[in-house]
Give the backbone structure.
Amino acid sequence: MSKSNRIGFIVFVCVIAAYGCYRLFSLFDLYPSATTGSGEMVEEELAFDTREDFGKALFFDPSLSSDRTVSCATCHKPEMAFTDGKVKSEGVGGRLAFRNSPTLLNLRDASVFMFDAHITSLHEQALAPIQDTNEMNMPMGDLIERLKQVPHYADAARQLFKRELDSWVVTHALEAFQKSLVSENSEFDKYLKAEAELSPDVEKGWELFKGLQCIQCHSLPHFTNYEALNNGLYHNYGDDPGKFRIAGDPNKMGAFKVPSLRNVALTAPYMHDGSMTTLEEVIDHYSKGGVGGKYQDKRVRKRSLTSEEKKYLITFLSALTDTSYLRDF
């Protein structure tokens, strides 16, 4: 090969290498970063390995709301057991949600969802906050068109669901992520698995919990029976009559789904409307037997508890805390 040919060949190789580098780095423009609920930019892989990963990206993406300011994680913060510590969550434009934000942990085992206990699947449940005008205020049709413009979302739909991105894909991806949120390694869980002993105060609280029949409604394994019941919070429930507004059955007036008590020490304020700020208030409510309303569940009745017994109950409830799930966040 002549000297001129060698030079030409070297120039050709350099041009090809430079073009390859250009194509490689341009991929970062094709796959824009996702954002967290606070708007902070986070780097995403070019493709998601699982449906759970895809759902997680959607969960933290504020572009699911009409004004791109509210993500699912805005109202369901991991460090607060996927609640937000507010009486009622703030949606787009500072609008207030209808009810207090519930935990999302251990929903894989739930049979019904929402405080009305009327939705029977997580993917169906996902439609509610996205389209609610006080929460994310985003019509599904508009959302799908928006998300189709994000290449790694569109690719994930084809790769993981074998279909084009649509509302079915979005809601099932969110469902997959939420079903991955598990918290079952508390001090009390270790006791049930014979891996540890309960402290004396926790054990006294556990015995009280059973003896007072709290376990009838807050049953194992997740300390809920998933039923919609009236716990005697009010005589008049005003503009939120609970399951009555869905079922039209007077016997369901003021009935709300029994919440899980797992991680309850992290999920204040309490009740469907966030009207109680401490566990002490909650225990006082039940020890007084509620307000004695017409539709109040008969199991809610007056109990005589000493201040020491109330302390034992709170110590037991605190032993239901498990934040091991945070290792993934």
